[in-house]
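tool_call: predict_structure(chain=1)
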Amino acid sequence: MPIASSSVAASSFYPGDRRRGYARGRLRLVYEAHPIAMLVEQAGGSATDTVEPVLDIAATELHQRVPLVFGSAAEVTRIARYHTLPSLIAERAPLFGKRGLFRA
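tool_result:
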């Protein structure tokens, strides 16, 4: 397997979280997200903030933070779909389905 293919064989996910300063995402767009996205897309993968491709996002401030999902195109598309359409998670995760452990 070529090095470029092995680097995007698994997906990575850097969402926003509840800690102070990370509500809009964890990685800085200009310094971290854009370079990672460029490398991953050149290797045949995909990089998104779950709504739009990271390379299409224009920075509005120097230290702007964004969530980042990158890796193989198929995996990134699947994760982005789960983020934008949470009802799809029940199809693949029995614990969260209609008769799942966490449903009343």
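agent: The longest strand covers residues 68-71. Proceeding to next step.
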